[in-house]
Amino acid sequence: MKPQMLSFLVCDGVHIDPMTGKQTILGVYSHLASRTFPFRHPRLFLLLTLAGLTTGKHNLKIAIGLPMEEQKVVVQRDFESAGPMQKLNLLSEIQGLAFPVPGDYAISIDIDDENLIVTSLPVIGPGAATNN
């Protein structure tokens, strides 16, 4: 059974209420922008919601890069699932992520060394139009 990705967000942060465990998502990105390149984004979070995982240990790998270039692994971590009916929110913090040039960066998400999805994150420079 292949896991299902229910959502994937790039954001400024996620507040987790200590009493309820409820998550509040802060500052969702549809793209990143910079006036100069290369640039490093100081800190962002990747929030991935999964379902349909078999019971037991699994490995998450997220890599990013320009198409047709080698991707950089930015997240590599183990996690556990209680079974296919459980929905898991996996939150990963990334600091100092480098973007050498503007472009549509590919984000590849793998579970247990099998690709789940490849999506994109536009990184734009000065003068670029946005539809936020």
Would you write up a description of this structure?
- The protein has 132 residues and is mainly β.
- It has one domain (4-124): Immunoglobulin-like (Sandwich).
- It has no helices and nine strands.
- It has strands at residues 4-16, 23-28, 32-33, 39-51, 56-65, 72-81, 88-99, 103-111, 114-124.
- The protein has a five-stranded mixed beta sheet with strand order 3-9-8-5-6, with no helix packed on it.
- The chain is globular, with a radius of gyration of 16 Å.
- The model has no long low-confidence stretch (mean pLDDT 93).
What is the string of SSEs from the N terminus onward? EEEEEEEEE
Residue share in helices?
under 10%
- Report the sheet with the most strands, covering strand number, pairing sense and barrel closure: 5 strands, mixed
- Beta content comes to over 45%
Tally the structural domains.
Answer: 1
Integer-rounded radius of gyration? 16 Å
Ranges with pLDDT <50 over ≥5 residues? Answer: none
Kindly report the name of the CATH homologous superfamily.
Answer: Macroglobulin (MG2) domain
CATH topology: Immunoglobulin-like
Largest sheet, spatial ordering of strands: 3-9-8-5-6
Seen as an oligomer or otherwise, the chain set is single chain
First CA to last CA: what distance?
A: 36 Å
Secondary structure tally: strands:
9
CATH architecture: Sandwich
Mean pLDDT: 93
Outline the fold blueprint.
Blueprint lengths: L3 E13 L6 E6 L3 E2 L5 E13 L4 E10 L6 E10 L6 E12 L3 E9 L2 E11 L8
Parallel strand pairs: 3-9
Antiparallel strand pairs: 1-2, 1-4, 4-7, 5-6, 5-8, 8-9
